[in-house]
């Protein structure tokens, strides 16, 4: 007779815990992180990827707390893993938000504030220049294997912040709030060459119009500003990838620092 496979309720609960809790953190990060969390990526794809990662990474993790899933403690751990995953994905998303902000700054100076369209990824109107820079940032992110580094950082987070029922430290949320200020600094630094050059061009046209009112310099001001912005943007393109690589490294480091700060 063939042996009968018997599974106890304790074993089934242990298997469920070993899969479910890492799966929740991974799904939360995939739903909010760049590339993975875009609305163009179908939900079944996100769920399937999180499940595959949980199956692959779950056996390498430390033993889980001996708490049933269907209990107050189990629901508390699920909520914690959800918050941790969302916070990690959001900290990486800040880098792309800075790129979009730089595109908004540059578009306003170039007179392209009216050139906007509905962006399904953000759910609102987005300037053309901001959308273009965001698309370039995503392509560079994929070229440097940033999506793989995000997954590696996610796997490392289970060692820096293991799954436990202890409350998360408040210093981690404070760190995330302070990291949000980097959006304005990085966005302004990226757009600063173009903004400064166009400001100089506008000052020169203002002085020229003051010296010669009959010239009507503002009649050709918009084409000159647009042409100057395009030329400066062309000169910035070779330096975009090195700048974004530093920002990607900063975002990945923030993900790990966040998990360390959340550790009780």
Automatic annotation (TrEMBL):
Main location: membrane
Transmembrane region(s): 12-33, 45-61, 67-87, 135-155, 175-203, 215-233
Origin: domain of life: Bacteria
Keyword field: Bacterial flagellum, Cell membrane, Cell projection, Cilium, Flagellum, Membrane, Transmembrane, Transmembrane helix
Membrane topology note: Multi-pass membrane protein
Cellular compartments annotated: Cell membrane; Bacterial flagellum basal body
InterPro entries: FliR, T3SS_IM_R
Reported function: Role in flagellar biosynthesis.
Stated family: Belongs to the FliR/MopE/SpaR family.
Protein name per its UniProtKB record: Flagellar biosynthetic protein FliR
